[in-house]
Amino acid sequence: MRRTHKGNPFHRIECWTGTYFRKASLWEVGVYLSLKHQDAPNICPNLQWQHQILEMFQKQKDETDMQNCPPSRNPVPEPEANMSDYITDPDPDPDPDPEGEEAQNAATFSVLDQMLDGKDPNNFMEEDDDQDDDRGADLHDSDAGTGFTTYMANGNDGPEPDPKPGSPIRPVRDALNNAYVRVVHTNGIHHIALVSCTCRGKENTITDLIYAGMLPTSFVRVRTLFTTALLDHFRYCNLELRTTAYQFFQVLRRFTMPMAPSKVANLYHELRRLSRLWRWVKKLRWAGYAQ
Known about the structure:
Strand order of the largest sheet: 3-7-6-9-8
Number of strands: 9
Distance between the termini: 37 Å
Shape: flat
Low-confidence stretches: 83-92, 124-159
Helix content: 40-55%
Radius of gyration: 25 Å
Number of helices: 9
Order of helices and strands: EEEHHHHHEEEEHEEHHH
């Protein structure tokens, strides 16, 4: 996954947890943004050395992940095995409990009714536990496989949404102290490391970023980037579809977290400012002004 996405660092991937596929990010498999010098045909030795060190650390992490890899829920039988051994009775319970099934169904429908009314099923379950311990136990058993907490956000930690349960915590720095940045692309907001070379000075980082097709929101401290593909896409949507900056960014937030778009960082003002800057730069280019 890491090797095939070095040229596509903004793709969306999923990770198998043992019971379901959760949304994952490419930084979890070691993908990063490599920023080379704009006037260099090849990668400089300093940047190439960073690639080798990061690859070495990531291979060690891959070996650890392989040892802790969750088993498959439906293992594929061996070709020479007898398929009759894998055929099971469609009704394995010879003595079903009608009363238990009825209570479980009633508890499940109660949870669905609470969700339909816009209430939090977690709080509903806590109230039921205080009133009826037996019913609460049935409710937790029936809800164990649905995973409500997987799709409901647990608050907001600053400008970034909290990671979902089971997801790794987003790092701030990599093994070589390269900062992780927030990149806004046409398919949402991404969290990824920016590996750059400062052998020619930090003042050249901004021009290297623009040459690579990314505009930073700050020319002093690079933490958030907008891709030029996104700015061009917003320009066409604004000209042809009359899409406002607010509507366009709301779509990006929903692309990032469909179930909780309000938990995504609000970069509406940054989008307006950079879109105006990008349009002015394009007009200068069309008028013949270089650099």
